[in-house]
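Sample intake sheet
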Amino acid sequence: MTNFINNLGIILYATLIYMTPLLYAALGSCFSEVSGVVNIGIEGMMTAGAFTGTVVAYFTGSPWIGFLCGGLAGALFGALHALATVKLGADQTIAGTAINMLGPGIVIMIAKVMFNSTDTIPLEASMKIPRLFRGVFDTGTVFGRFMDNVFANFASTYLVFVAVAVVWFVFYKTRFGLRLRACGEHPQACETLGINVIAMRFVCVCISGFLSGLGGACVTMAISTQFRPISIVGQGFIAIAAVIFGKFRPHGALLGCLLFGFCSGLKVVLGGSSGIDMQLLSMIPYVVTVIVLILFVGKSHVPSANGKPFIKSK
């Protein structure tokens, strides 16, 4: 029984840890997709945020400044994607693919110039995003260890739950959210009502990049405490799958990210207590991603104008 409780606590801890960067990126994807712009460049934006957050925290010693700058770096790449797709009418899929290639390429080049290395940029313990409620629970008992595993998590994890509530409120309880959703469904009708569809979509893609950058910063400033070129591998696409699973809604994306986080947590526990090859266990999140896409991609309500360039009437 004790082992079961300990393993359950570890699974829940790992679920929350691995869910956090996915959920930031998924919330960003919701903004872009619901406004009518396909953004598969999430991975490149996360990579930019991961690198920038690590470098800024390394030089300033402040994890929160690094975390914020990671989001701003993602927003910069989001603005680049918006410029190409919203302003210039470029193919959204190709532009997103270019962002995914451009992001890692630029940060590796900068790392080479700044640190004479493209391998790792480590962070000291004081530069990491702080944990909350660490030391509050008595780890000498089974229940205390369980509570410590579940609740003594990084501050960014608690913040992402707040972000879900804020994004849900913005989407469904504000005029901005109503216009955002309308731009993804009937942009021509929005134009006749005086809504600037191009400006709305541009802003939403930038917000998408900002949240994706925060997700990338979480990976290197909480989970791994260092930046490596392979820090962000497939997580952007998993976040997009979570959005499809959640039917392009922020609360649905939360459930999807919890599912993928649970798969990663299960991988951690099984990797330490079973004889299963670690390479096979590492496949779990990606296999689940493929299954989710097969089962839910046809059932999700995709915004009617999603992926369609908007041409302003003359």
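Comment: Residues 184 and 220 are 33 Å apart (CA to CA). The chain has one domain: 2-296.
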